[in-house]
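Chapter summary example: a protein plus potassium ion.
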Amino acid sequence: MPNALHDMRNLLVTPPEMQAVDKDAAGSGIDSFSLMRSAGMAVSAAALRLFPSAARFVVFCGPGNNGGDGYVAAAALTASGANVALYALGDTGKLKGDAARAHAAYGREAISIELYEPQSQDVIIDALFGAGLARELPDQAQEIVGRVDQAGLPVVAVDLPSGIDGRTGEIRGASFTAVHTVTFMAAKPGHVLMPGRGRCGTLEVFDIGIPARLVAARAGGLGINVPAVWRQCAAGLDPATHKFKRGHLAVFSGGPTSTGAARLSAAAGLRAGAGLVTLASPTEAIPVNAAHLTAVMLKEIGNAADLAEWLKDSRLNAFVLGPGFGIGEKARDFALMLCERALVLDADGLTSFKERRSELFDRIAASGGQVVMTPHEGEFQRLFPEIAADGKLSKIEKAQAAAKLSHAVILSKGPDTVIAAPSGRAVVNVNAPPWLATAGSGDVLAGIIGAHLAQGMPAFEAAAAAAWRHGEAGRRTGRSATAEMLVENIAPLPEESAS
Ligand SMILES: NC(=O)C1=CN([C@@H]2O[C@H](COP(=O)(O)OP(=O)(O)OC[C@H]3O[C@@H](n4cnc5c(N)ncnc54)[C@H](OP(=O)(O)O)[C@@H]3O)[C@@H](O)[C@H]2O)[C@@H](O)CC1
Ligand SMILES: Nc1ncnc2c1ncn2[C@@H]1O[C@H](COP(=O)(O)OP(=O)(O)O)[C@@H](O)[C@H]1O
Ligand SMILES: [K+]
């Protein structure tokens, strides 16, 4: 695992991994109650920072350690002079361990949660359930979520908004929608996967003092897609370079009425840094493509024999196949010929293998090439129906399973794009604005990945860096983004110092 993922800010730790970290911390002699105290104090500080003039802080405490953090926060808020009311879910007499100790230390009355009546100036501290949520949110808690939503009250969540599954980001029955979430040591998948991400508000990762080495030792290779993940593979270009050293990317065009998608990929590939980009076009689409291209070159490739001849040029080192290409045998034949080099298989290129996927997966395994597949949800479902249908798996786990099965790097698109390698390594992209969901946006992404592959980046880093640059391009473009505008706004790769 690269060092980048050892940086706590970039790590994602699943709830079971975090539980193991807790045990290791206790085993190494760290006082678990002092960790809870740090956690609760951090929540109290965040609440006071965000709502310095709140009329009342209402703390909801659950039956486990998340509730324990709530008792500590309530005590700290009270000590700071704030007006605090505390409502408990379940029998406080049944609290155990650190949570029981935090409850005792709070020392004031806990009101039963069903008695909570919203007041218009309330600020909610949600400490019902965190990483330990093991099933649907109890009915009583769901009802409170409804009351808080209806009253439109701001919520500060402890660890996770209660109701969000920390492993998957799914909503277990109902969940609070927080304006701010304070989590501890490292973010969890539920903070970055949808729909959970949309309910966390701003995310604060607070260091409660567990040594980083204990967290890193249990972390399983998941991270957030920050430049540190791939920067070491994107070193600045050699000033003595020439265009062939920056790689030669080829993008395959569809027929005369569906050429735009491939041209978008090609334009994005050039803009993203490939030295040369050639659009490979069937004969009948040559006129329309010729009429639209300038810096991108054009080559007539009608059939597999033409392609075989062209591939004798070993400088052609990366390919994008799929956008607007058409579904069928030609796509399959071409893709199978390209697996040995570096290939982005997208759109129709993926769908063409719906009934014949093992041919593709076997070829990828045998070829040793760098292959990235970029399915959106529908394409993922077509190629990996059994994985897509497994309701127990998170989006990260689905991408990991698909990567393992196909031997390719999988970039599973959406607002929470996941990039996974066959080894299990995976990152979640978090910089994409919603207006990236515009026609042709995926074609632009495929072109950026192609440019990275052409420059010699390994498939995982090429895909992760492309998702990030695509997101940045979206931000630079703004809400009115079209795919053409995204191409214009692809910025240079960040310098060494960016994180
Ligand atoms: N990470 C760290 O280093 C630190 C973490 N800390 C904090 O600990 C939190 C994790 O604590 P936790 O493990 O006690 O889990 P938590 O979310 O309180 O819930 C578990 C309880 O709820 C119950 N239960 C579960 N689901 C239920 C349901 N649907 N309906 C009803 N009951 C349900 C479950 O009972 P059971 O499933 O056994 O029946 C159990 O009693 C974490 O989020 C963070 O805030 C800090 O204190 C400092 C250090
Ligand atoms: N809500 C969203 N927020 C951020 N990015 C999104 C959202 N929805 C889609 N995207 C991104 O937009 C792109 C759409 O690609 P794709 O589905 O292939 O569309 P198209 O075929 O029109 O190009 C993907 O990169 C995807 O990750
Ligand atoms: K919570």
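Key point: The domain at 227-488 is CATH 3.40.1190.20 (UDP-N-acetylmuramoyl-L-alanine:D-glutamate ligase).
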